[in-house]
């Protein structure tokens, strides 16, 4: 360590102690201008045996404890370097050197896991849901929300805890080490925008080293430090990836992509799905984006261009949207001449746009009533009922307003429809026949919408449906009795009877 | 058009055509118009000029980034029309303004930027009325602002005639900033008015559809944004980002997105939503975030520091602004991940709608486009949700991506990984199979599948297949080859444990040993290979060899908990109980909350230090359990009602579950009066029957909640309850060892409350009955235990003994022989078998049994080696 650096660090150590409380914030702001200080502190942390290490760690902790955001960020910028010191020392089984670093890290951890009142802090966030209006959208315009179990569970906005509550820790043990470090990285990542380039480089280096030490790749990277393998956890890697991602997009292209590769390499060897998932996604999403390296002009690789606003997909391609508006032929009719007819998909979704929806239109309601039914089809039966329910509703509102609102379920049944349609009416047989029946009902009743001269639904179908206690078909059909007025904005009510075993 | 349209009707029709850009109808309408009144001629000129200019632009669209191409012969006519309209000056003020705007646009198209600006300064764009204006005029004004911005960008700042009002200012730097600001203002105003225009146009359109009789042909063709509107909508934020002005760029994005969408803006919104999400995920963090309804911070680390201080707030206002989403209880994100997620969900729904389903070759390009735009969104969703640990939701999202996924490896793989991370193992394996098909050379994929097969699924046959895939790759698998051998070794090792026939058992053990040896030789620095080799050797009772490898493993990874545990068990097999206890205590200093270590500690303590110590450890375990799983989440952390459902479902499962085998029955330790307050143990962790139902739901809730976000070692939600029951059973065992049936029975009752049908609980009840001298009752309990788990060796051994006491020798022999078949290393079973045979007078066979028992006892660990988990 050079004498000059030593002087700088000594000054820094003494200056803060003499500081008056009121002067803290101006002092914090002035730290940025001390160009030589930060590199000198990095040196202190890197040289494990430096005499300064202990007072420096102490002072960094004092900074953190002050609560002044700028001082806290000053401490945080050294976090990657501190983590590396700790991990390499513990891998080298060299306990006495890392003592004060351990104390500093545990100190920060214990400060961060509690809120102002000393209660365990719980970090949570709201999972947005498209079914609730937001500043950016209206649920009616989104339409297609799949009626999956998950979607139903998520119907409202739900708050989800992503970290916490955490236990206070007095020492590092092999068991808690990565819990603590993962949480510390979470704090670091929350302040990423304030971190200097050096700190971002440092987190990339940390990631690379943690992941490759002791593995064959270490030779490729020519890193000569410790060569023992460090244990990692998947969550820890995910947090590292978050930091790398930021670095990668904010000037540190080379180090960042190397680090990302190394983390992915390790995640593969460890078979960590979480880290692989996020890492792959980052790699793939950056694949097209040309990343600029760290030049003065565009330190950030966030650049946008003017993009054409018209849809780039040709109008006659069959898309999930267009297929919903498709007028299906009567499938029980034998006159399905050529198979080409199935390909003959006309776009009928003009005017489907929900903007045309009158404000007075009542949304369709789905009543789910619990009643004891004879049939014991369980959850599957209910699903089918839902299928039927959706298709019915879809049909009713279809060409008018709700074309987009068709659910994935409806799509599913629509696909099924094409598959089964070319065959003859299926034999009754357990569940498949239910779907087929439902499809048949669907197609028949849809015909009624399309052409009002269609024959009334045969009793045969109705009774078959009845067997599965899906009263909705009959209800639904009521709406499609011969003359269907497209302008009519009635809300279809669909009641689904659930078996008692659900 | 047979009937002449009345004047006002005609005007309306013209207005509609202009609004809907139906330029081909204009000439005919102009003819009708001129026929009515000569004074209309000027208006006719205007209309013809406009219609020709627009038609020209439609046929020769301007390209982004390319400059206009200078004068064109076709445009001469346009200029003629417009000049005519302008020169005569008969037009109403409104129309005159329109002529000027068109003139300026024409000038721009011809590359005459200064002239264009001259026209704009004459009209003064800011004075144009937005309220009450016909729809087409909104579009004109929006285009005019955009064109003005474009011209200002083209014309060098220095030229005095063009800069804004305070031209005289000599300080060029200042005027450049003002100018930059003026350019941005032009674009932003243009964008705002364009959004307003599109909203109004659509309103008019849908009103028109309803009023007019249905007419043939496509009615609602999409409004197309021309070059100018596109520029107006997007150029402002492009400039912001180019200048490193993230705060303002983000602000502009949000303004556009908050405007109520319409058909034309959809694709733009999708792009912008995705871009904003990218920025939120790549360039922002929690601390630098501000919510869409808040004012941006004055100083932000997001902005280029060299330009700091130029942050300005919006300094213009419009008399009419586009409608924004409004209403009560609008969700407004409060955090960057929330906003990113919301935006991505919106983009996703749009991208999903555009999924091209047909696979005919003509639509190849369309399919690629729709796939690309969707996979970008899904990647970003993965980043956002992965950061927050929401793998369950992620797997649902990625499942929706499957309509794009035909033969697309990336999407399949991501789905598989998300299912795995969400704990949906069975489905994950199915999807991984498809991934293997798509990318047969990647050894990671089958390894991931093996991991699931030997972990949560226990599908050993499938696991074997996947393991073989890796091994068959040979050298190609490189570093993963060793992992492949490790995986298949684990499969065999687990199969050996499951096997009920001794021969199969030995066969699998041999195979496992071979595989571990291969793994170890291929990757000598992998501690896992050395460790599993040691474990397998230990299971086959090759204690000294096992000790060698476990030492090797510990050299490679000094603080590996399983290696330490194995070392302790190996030492206990050599009857070095004190050394073993020391190792366990050392391991516990690093892993204080590891219950497996603690169970072994209880055993060792009752052996070396007496049952009081062991009871203290039991109490300690209960305390740990409580602090571990009792961290209550005050917030409603879960996903609403489904969480409750899940917890209730768990409880139903609870009764049906059985505890895994956890310990050997025989404790040599004999009793002293216990000094421990029995009740103190209950006070630590009382889960009495009365309160248990309520607290259990509560506990399960928090457990499920925490398992949702942490994906660490994935245990089912049952895990904590099984742990608790095991702790109670260990305590019961210590009490039986001390001949304290009452206390033991109370402990067993606690376990029984959790798992009433566990064979371990029934077995313990039998032991207690035996202790009380109730042979018949004990026999009944043992029989019940065996009816639940017919291969429970410890129960079989006790039952054999009782039958022996009841002098039903041949039945006893049968039970004990079965037990030996199941586990040939259980020395006490051999011993009991010997006794029965002796009683039957079969001395020779009895001797052999005693010798085997003796030999096995010499290498028997305090707890079976198989309590150490085997996982990849």
From TrEMBL, chain A:
<keyword id="KW-1003">Cell membrane</keyword>
<dbReference type="GO" id="GO:0005886">
    <property type="term" value="C:plasma membrane"/>
</dbReference>
<dbReference type="GO" id="GO:0005829">
    <property type="term" value="C:cytosol"/>
</dbReference>
<dbReference type="GO" id="GO:0072659">
    <property type="term" value="P:protein localization to plasma membrane"/>
</dbReference>
<keyword id="KW-0963">Cytoplasm</keyword>
<keyword id="KW-0472">Membrane</keyword>
<dbReference type="InterPro" id="IPR018619">
    <property type="entry name" value="Hyccin"/>
</dbReference>
<protein>
    <recommendedName>
        <fullName>Hyccin</fullName>
    </recommendedName>
</protein>
<dbReference type="Pfam" id="PF09790">
    <property type="entry name" value="Hyccin"/>
</dbReference>
<dbReference type="GO" id="GO:0046854">
    <property type="term" value="P:phosphatidylinositol phosphate biosynthetic process"/>
</dbReference>
<comment type="similarity">
    <text>Belongs to the Hyccin family.</text>
</comment>
From TrEMBL, chain B:
<keyword id="KW-0963">Cytoplasm</keyword>
<dbReference type="GO" id="GO:0005829">
    <property type="term" value="C:cytosol"/>
</dbReference>
<dbReference type="Pfam" id="PF07719">
    <property type="entry name" value="TPR_2"/>
</dbReference>
<keyword id="KW-0472">Membrane</keyword>
<dbReference type="Pfam" id="PF19440">
    <property type="entry name" value="TTC7_N"/>
</dbReference>
<feature type="region of interest" description="Disordered">
    <location>
        <begin position="159"/>
        <end position="180"/>
    </location>
</feature>
<dbReference type="InterPro" id="IPR013105">
    <property type="entry name" value="TPR_2"/>
</dbReference>
<dbReference type="GO" id="GO:0072659">
    <property type="term" value="P:protein localization to plasma membrane"/>
</dbReference>
<comment type="subunit">
    <text>Component of a phosphatidylinositol 4-kinase (PI4K) complex, composed of PI4KA, EFR3 (EFR3A or EFR3B), TTC7 (TTC7A or TTC7B) and HYCC (HYCC1 or HYCC2). Interacts with PI4KA, interaction is direct. Interacts with EFR3 (EFR3A or EFR3B), interaction is direct. Interacts with HYCC (HYCC1 or HYCC2), interaction is direct. Association with the PI4K complex is strongly reduced by TMEM150A.</text>
</comment>
<feature type="repeat" description="TPR">
    <location>
        <begin position="827"/>
        <end position="860"/>
    </location>
</feature>
<keyword id="KW-0597">Phosphoprotein</keyword>
<dbReference type="InterPro" id="IPR051722">
    <property type="entry name" value="Endocytosis_PI4K-reg_protein"/>
</dbReference>
<dbReference type="GO" id="GO:0046854">
    <property type="term" value="P:phosphatidylinositol phosphate biosynthetic process"/>
</dbReference>
<feature type="repeat" description="TPR">
    <location>
        <begin position="409"/>
        <end position="442"/>
    </location>
</feature>
<dbReference type="InterPro" id="IPR011990">
    <property type="entry name" value="TPR-like_helical_dom_sf"/>
</dbReference>
<feature type="compositionally biased region" description="Polar residues">
    <location>
        <begin position="160"/>
        <end position="175"/>
    </location>
</feature>
<keyword id="KW-0677">Repeat</keyword>
<dbReference type="InterPro" id="IPR019734">
    <property type="entry name" value="TPR_rpt"/>
</dbReference>
<dbReference type="InterPro" id="IPR045819">
    <property type="entry name" value="TTC7_N"/>
</dbReference>
<comment type="function">
    <text>Component of a complex required to localize phosphatidylinositol 4-kinase (PI4K) to the plasma membrane. The complex acts as a regulator of phosphatidylinositol 4-phosphate (PtdIns(4)P) synthesis. In the complex, plays a central role in bridging PI4KA to EFR3B and HYCC1, via direct interactions.</text>
</comment>
<dbReference type="GO" id="GO:0005886">
    <property type="term" value="C:plasma membrane"/>
</dbReference>
<keyword id="KW-0802">TPR repeat</keyword>
């Amino acid at each position: 360590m050079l004498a000059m650096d030593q002087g700088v660090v000594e000054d820094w150590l003494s200056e803060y102690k003499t500081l008056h409380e009121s002067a803290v914030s101006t002092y914090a702001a002035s730290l940025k201008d001390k160009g030589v200080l930060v590199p000198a502190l990095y040196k202190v942390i890197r040289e494990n045996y430096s005499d300064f290490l202990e007072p420096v760690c102490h002072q960094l902790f004092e900074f953190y404890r002050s609560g002044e955001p700028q001082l806290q960020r000053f401490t945080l910028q050294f976090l990657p370097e501190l983590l590396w010191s700790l991990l390499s020392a513990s891998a080298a089984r060299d306990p006495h050197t890392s003592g004060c670093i351990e104390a500093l890290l545990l100190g920060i951890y214990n400060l961060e896991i509690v809120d102002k009142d000393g209660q365990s802090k719980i970090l949570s966030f709201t999972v947005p849901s498209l079914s609730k209006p937001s500043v950016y959208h209206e649920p009616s315009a989104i339409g297609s929300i799949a009626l999956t179990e998950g979607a139903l569970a998520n119907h409202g906005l739900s708050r989800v805890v992503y970290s916490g509550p955490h236990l206070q820790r007095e020492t590092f043990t092999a068991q808690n080490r990565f819990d603590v470090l993962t949480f510390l990285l979470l704090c670091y990542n929350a302040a990423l925008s304030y971190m200097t380039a050096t700190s971002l480089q440092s987190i990339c280096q940390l990631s690379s080293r943690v992941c490759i030490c002791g593995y064959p790749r270490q030779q490729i990277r020519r890193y000569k430090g410790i060569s023992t393998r460090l244990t990692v956890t998947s969550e820890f890697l995910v947090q590292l990836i978050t930091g790398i991602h930021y670095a990668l997009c904010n000037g540190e292209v080379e180090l960042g992509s190397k680090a990302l590769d190394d983390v992915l390499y390790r995640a593969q060897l460890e078979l960590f799905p979480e880290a692989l998932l996020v890492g792959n996604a980052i790699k793939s999403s950056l694949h097209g984006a040309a990343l600029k390296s760290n030049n003065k002009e565009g330190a950030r690789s966030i650049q946008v261009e003017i993009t054409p606003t018209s849809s780039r997909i040709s109008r006659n391609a069959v898309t999930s949207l267009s297929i919903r508006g498709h007028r299906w032929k009567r499938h029980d009719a034998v006159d399905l001449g050529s198979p080409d007819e199935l390909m003959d998909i006309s776009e009928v979704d003009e005017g489907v746009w929900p903007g045309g929806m009158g404000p007075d239109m009542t949304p369709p309601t789905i009543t789910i009533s619990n009643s004891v039914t004879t049939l014991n089809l369980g959850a599957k039966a209910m699903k089918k009922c839902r299928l039927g329910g959706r298709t019915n509703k879809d049909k009713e509102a279809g060409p008018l307003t709700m074309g987009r609102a068709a659910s994935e379920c409806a799509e599913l049944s629509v696909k099924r429809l094409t598959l089964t349609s070319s065959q003859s009416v299926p034999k009754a047989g357990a569940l498949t026949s239910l779907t087929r029946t439902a499809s048949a009902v669907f197609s028949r009743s849809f015909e009624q919408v399309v052409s009002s001269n269609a024959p009334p639904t045969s009793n045969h179908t109705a009774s078959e449906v009845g067997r599965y206690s899906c009263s909705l078909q009959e209800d639904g059909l009521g709406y499609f009795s011969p003359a269907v007025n497209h302008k009519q904005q009635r809300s279809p009510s669909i009641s689904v009877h659930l078996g008692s075993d659900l | 058009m047979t009937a002449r349209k009345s004047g006002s009707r005609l005007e309306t029709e013209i207005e509609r055509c202009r609004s809907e850009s139906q330029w081909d109808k204009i000439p005919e309408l102009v003819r009708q118009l001129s026929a009515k009144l000569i004074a209309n001629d000027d208006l006719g000129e205007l209309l013809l000029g406009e219609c020709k200019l627009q038609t020209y632009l439609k046929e020769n669209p301007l390209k982004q980034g390319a400059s206009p191409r200078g004068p064109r012969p076709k445009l001469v006519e346009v200029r003629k029309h417009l000049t005519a309209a302008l020169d005569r000056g008969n037009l109403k003020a409104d129309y005159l303004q329109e002529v000027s705007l068109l003139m300026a646009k024409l000038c721009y198209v011809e590359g005459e930027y200064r002239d264009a600006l001259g026209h704009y300064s004459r009209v003064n764009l800011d004075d144009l009325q937005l309220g009450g204006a016909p729809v087409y005029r909104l579009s004109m004004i929006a285009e005019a602002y955009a064109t003005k911005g474009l011209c200002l960008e083209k014309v060098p700042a220095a030229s005095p005639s063009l800069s804004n009002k305070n031209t005289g200012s000599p300080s060029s730097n200042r005027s450049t900033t003002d100018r930059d600001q003026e350019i941005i203002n032009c674009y932003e105003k243009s964008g705002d008015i364009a959004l307003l225009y599109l909203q109004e146009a659509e309103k008019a359109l849908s009103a028109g559809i309803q009023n007019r009789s249905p007419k043939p042909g496509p009615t609602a063709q999409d409004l197309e944004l021309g070059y100018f509107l596109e520029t107006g909508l997007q150029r402002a934020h492009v400039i912001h980002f180019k200048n490193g002005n993230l705060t303002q760029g983000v602000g502009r994005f949000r303004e556009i997105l908050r405007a109520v969408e319409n058909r034309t803006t959809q694709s733009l919104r999708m792009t912008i939503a995705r871009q904003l999400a990218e920025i939120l995920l790549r360039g922002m963090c929690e601390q630098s975030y501000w919510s869409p309804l808040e004012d941006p911070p004055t100083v932000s680390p997001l902005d280029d520091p060299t330009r700091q201080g130029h942050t300005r707030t919006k300094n213009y206002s419009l008399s009419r602004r586009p409608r924004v989403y409004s209403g009560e209880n609008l969700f407004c994100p409060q955090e960057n991940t929330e906003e990113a997620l919301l935006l991505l969900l919106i983009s996703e729904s749009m991208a999903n709608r555009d999924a091209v389903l047909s696979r005919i070759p003509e639509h190849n390009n369309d399919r690629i486009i729709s796939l690309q735009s969707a996979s970008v969104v899904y990647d970003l969703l993965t980043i956002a949700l992965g950061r927050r640990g929401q793998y369950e939701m992620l797997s649902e999202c990625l499942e929706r991506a499957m309509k794009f996924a035909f033969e697309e490896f990336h999407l399949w793989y991501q789905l598989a990984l998300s299912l795995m991370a969400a704990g949906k193992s069975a489905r994950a394996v199915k999807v991984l199979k498809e991934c293997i098909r798509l990318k047969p050379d990647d050894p990671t994929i089958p390894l991931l599948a093996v991991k699931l097969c030997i972990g949560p699924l226990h599908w050993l046959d499938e696991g074997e297949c996947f393991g073989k895939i890796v091994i068959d790759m040979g050298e190609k698998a490189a570093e993963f080859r060793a992992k492949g051998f490790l995986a298949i070794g684990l499969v065999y090792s687990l199969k050996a444990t499951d096997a009920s026939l001794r021969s199969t058992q030995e066969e699998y053990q041999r195979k496992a040993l071979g595989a571990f040896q291969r793994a170890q030789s291929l990757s000598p620095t992998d501690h896992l290979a050395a460790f599993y080799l040691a474990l397998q050797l230990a299971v086959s009772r090759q204690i000294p060899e096992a000790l060698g490898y476990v030492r090797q493993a510990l050299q490679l990874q000094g603080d590996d908990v399983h290696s330490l545990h194995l070392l302790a068990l190996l030492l206990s097999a050599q009857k070095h109980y004190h050394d073993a206890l020391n190792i366990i205590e050392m391991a516990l200093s690093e892993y204080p909350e590891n219950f497996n270590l603690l169970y072994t500690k209880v055993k060792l303590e009752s052996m070396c230090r007496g049952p009081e110590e062991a009871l203290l450890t039991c109490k300690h375990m209960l305390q740990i359990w409580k602090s571990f799983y009792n961290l209550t989440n005050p917030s409603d952390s879960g996903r609403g009602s489904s969480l409750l459902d899940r917890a209730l479902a768990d409880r139903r499962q609870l009764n049906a579950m059985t505890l895994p085998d956890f310990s050997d029955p025989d404790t040599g330790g004999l009793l002293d009066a216990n000094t421990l307050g029995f009740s103190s143990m209950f006070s630590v962790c009382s889960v009495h029957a009365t309160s248990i139902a309520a607290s259990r739901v509560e506990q399960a809730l928090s457990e499920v909640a925490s398992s949702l976000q942490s994906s660490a070692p994935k245990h089912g939600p049952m895990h904590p309850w099984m742990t608790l029951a095991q702790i109670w059973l260990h305590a019961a065992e210590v009490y039986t060892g001390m001949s304290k049936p009452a206390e033991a029975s109370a402990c067993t009752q606690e376990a029984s409350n959790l798992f009433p049908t566990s064979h371990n609980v029934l077995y313990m009840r039998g032991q207690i009955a035996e202790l009380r001298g109730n042979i018949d009752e004990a026999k009944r309990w043992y029989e019940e235990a065996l009816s639940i788990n017919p291969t429970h060796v410890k129960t079989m051994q006790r039952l054999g003994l009782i039958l022996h006491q009841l002098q039903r020798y041949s039945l006893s022999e049968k039970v004990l022989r079965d037990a030996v078949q199941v586990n040939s290393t259980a020395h006490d079973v051999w011993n009991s078998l010997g006794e029965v045979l002796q009683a039957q007078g079969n001395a020779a066979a009895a001797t052999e049994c005693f010798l085997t028992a003796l030999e096995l006892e010499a290498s028997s660990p305090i707890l079976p080696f198989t309590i150490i988990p085997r996982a990849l």
